[in-house]
TrEMBL record:
The species this protein was found in: Brettanomyces naardenensis (Yeast)
Keywords: Cytoplasm, Golgi apparatus, Lipid-binding, Membrane, Protein transport, Transport
Name of protein: Sorting nexin-3
Sample GO molecular function, one term: phosphatidylinositol-3-phosphate binding
Domain PX: 35-160
Length: 160
């Protein structure tokens, strides 16, 4: 396979014209060297009485970054888990500004389980998690990130 990162001098012919390198399909569309894909999907509301109802969200992760334990994972997390995860990240690193979560609901308790509100919150949680997972320092150096998106049980106590 031709080296796509050849030096400029080797990319220029003796007559001064630029040698053209046509990229292969794999070079154009193949899996990147390191990637981390995270989606927040499938919100499910649990409980039948308003006092014990809550919604959790599925986090789907796909990666080839060596520091991650699994290449693919699916876990479920509540909003309160995202909140504690954010606090852990703030404690874990002072070099990165951790993004905000979607606002906590000031709606009545029953309105928090409205489909529109749940979808809006899901989108906000996904945006938050993608910003965190997309940060190079957190991607490769945060044990809390790996645990949050891959461990079946999120134990914030391990990190505080």
């Amino acid at each position: 396979m031709a080296n796509p990162f050849q030096s400029f001098s080797s990319a220029v012919g003796e007559d001064g014209t630029v040698k053209e390198h046509k990229q292969t399909f794999d070079e154009l569309y193949g899996e990147p060297e390191n990637f981390l894909e995270v989606d927040v999907v499938n919100p499910v509301t649990h409980g039948s009485k308003p006092a014990n109802m809550y919604t959790d969200y599925e986090i789907v992760c796909r990666t080839n970054i060596p520091t991650f334990k699994k290449k693919r994972s699916r876990v479920r997390r509540r909003f309160s888990d995202f909140d504690s995860f954010r606090r852990v990240l703030q404690h874990e690193t002072t070099r990165v500004v951790i993004p905000k979560l979607p606002d906590k609901s000031i709606m009545t308790y029953s309105q928090r389980f409205n489909d529109d509100f749940i979808e809006e919150r899901r989108e906000g949680l996904e945006k938050f998690l993608n910003m965190v997972a997309g940060h190079p320092l957190l991607q490769t150096g945060s044990k809390a990130l790996i645990s949050f998106i891959q461990d079946d049980v999120w134990d914030k106590g391990r990190f505080l």
